[in-house]
Design a protein that fits this description.
The protein has twelve helices and 14 strands. The chain is globular and about 70 Å long. The chain has helices at 7-22, 28-39, 75-86, 106-111, 113-133, 188-209, 224-236, 250-260, 299-307, 329-340, 347-351, 356-364; strands at 47-52, 58-62, 94-100, 140-141, 143-151, 157-166, 168-171, 177-179, 241-244, 271-275, 278-285, 291-298, 318-322, 379-385. Strands 9-3-6-5-13 form a five-stranded antiparallel β-sheet, with helices on both faces. A three-stranded antiparallel β-sheet has the order 2-1-14, with no helix packed on it. It has a domain at 88-265 and 310-344: Replication Protein E1, Chain: A (3-Layer(aba) Sandwich), CATH 3.40.1310. Helix 5 (113-133) crosses helix 6 (188-209). Strand 5 (143-151) and strand 6 form a beta hairpin. Helices cover 38% and strands 21% of the residues.
């Protein structure tokens, strides 16, 4: 059976040439991510050998790179994350709200990822919290999970945040649950204008503090009049904030979160072909009724687009706010569960960690402890394979 194409194959075939041409200007995090993806699940990272206690068959398993941008290393992390989120889901409606940065800001964001993406999170969270706590709209503290994505379907820079928000919240005095409207979250136009105002105010503050840099194509923004002209133009523009219909059940919320949380810029399943210096991949054309189309780009261009979405080290792309924040989970979220009649889990149950073998068996239907050759025996650990002391060939 022919193995499907992977991002790692493209990096192994064309990564050395790309680094030779651009390595001097690449951030260290991009170089590390490329190397991690190239050697993921290969002899370079070592592994272990298992042997069947029934038929004697041997299976070699190589270690994963564990890099958060690797398309092969997200499944178990996603499932573990979702298992924790299942404990937080309330029996209420949830809304999916998407905040998108305008095209004019994207070149600045690309060159100031940590600063601008932090501003984006702050503007989004404060906008939702300010409006929902206003008694004219809800008058309660909601809970929401915000997830940053930086790519479009064609791998271009397209920073936006997905928010999964409770359709109601804890009253400001903490005594009751305040339900939201059945099919309506917040007035999107008001939310959009508030988001725009907060983001641009925070962006100006960041520039005044000297937190932004203006290299290359955005060098003109160093000049105060140019930066102000950009802000003025953005204030006149209608910013895109989109609220999708509410989820119908807790299971739907979890399923939706699973699609968005640990996703990387492109999955291996979307890759179609690597022929010479050309890469073909599938994408959905949002301007043509989500029609699935094929895009062919130069391998070097594919690598460049992929690397645009390697986030700064330590930058959290999934954040929780309101009653779902870490500091409120054991107090305000617990109070909401009490008000809504949701049984509370004891601390031992909450901290219990499902063994990875059970987790993999549950999500794939195949228990890794059962021999894949005879189907009768148990795979027993035999030996450790050390990391290769020699670099992987291109």
């Amino acid at each position: 059976m022919k193995r499907s194409l992977e991002v790692a194959d493209i990096f192994r075939s064309h990564g050395a040439r790309y680094r030779e041409a651009h390595g001097h200007e690449m951030p260290l995090r991009q170089l590390r991510a490329m190397r991690a993806i190239e050697i993921c699940r290969t002899v370079a990272l070592g592994g272990h050998v298992d042997e069947c206690d029934h038929c004697g068959a041997v299976r070699i398993s190589y270690n994963s790179c564990r890099n958060r941008h690797c398309p092969k290393c997200q499944r178990l992390d996603t499932e573990r994350w979702l298992e924790h989120r299942r404990r937080d889901v309330l029996p209420v409606r949830y809304f999916h709200v998407v905040f998108t940065l305008p095209e004019q800001v994207r070149p600045l964001a690309l060159r100031n990822q940590k600063a601008v993406y932090s501003i984006l999170f702050r503007a989004v969270s404060e906008s939702i919290q300010e409006l929902t706590e206003d008694r004219k709209h809800l008058g309660a503290e909601v809970g929401f999970t915000a997830i940053l994505h930086t790519w479009s379907q064609t791998l271009m820079d397209h920073p936006h945040i997905h928010c999964i928000v409770t359709g109601g919240g804890l009253s400001l005095d903490g005594k009751r649950w305040v339900p939201g409207k059945e099919k309506f979250f917040l007035p999107v136009k008001i939310l959009s204008r508030l988001f725009r105002g907060k983001f641009l105010a925070f962006l100006k503050e960041a520039r005044d503090r000297g937190d932004l840099v203006f290299p290359g194509a955005i060098a003109h923004l160093k000049e105060e009049h140019s930066f102000k002209a950009m802000l003025d133009e953005l204030y006149e523009k209608q910013w895109v904030v989109y609220c999708k219909p509410p989820f119908t059940s807790a299971e739907t919320v979890i399923e939706y979160l699973g699609r968005y949380t640990h996703r990387v810029a492109i999955s291996n399943e979307r890759l179609v072909k690597l022929e010479g210096d050309r890469v073909g991949f599938r994408y959905r054309d949002r301007n043509d009724h989500d029609t699935v189309k094929l895009m062919n780009v130069d391998a070097s261009e594919f690598i460049r687009r992929f690397l645009m979405h390697i986030l700064p080290d330590g930058f959290m792309k999934i954040r929780h706010y309101g009653i779902l924040s870490n500091r409120n989970r054991k107090t305000k979220l617990a109070r909401c569960k009490e008000l809504l009649g949701v049984p509370l889990l004891d601390e031992h149950t909450e901290s219990a960690r499902e063994p990875w073998q059970d987790l993999l068996a549950r999500i794939t239907g195949h228990d890794p402890r059962i021999c894949p050759f005879c189907g009768k025996g148990t795979m027993v650990f035999k030996e450790v394979l050390r990391r290769s002391p020699f670099p992987m060939p291109p």
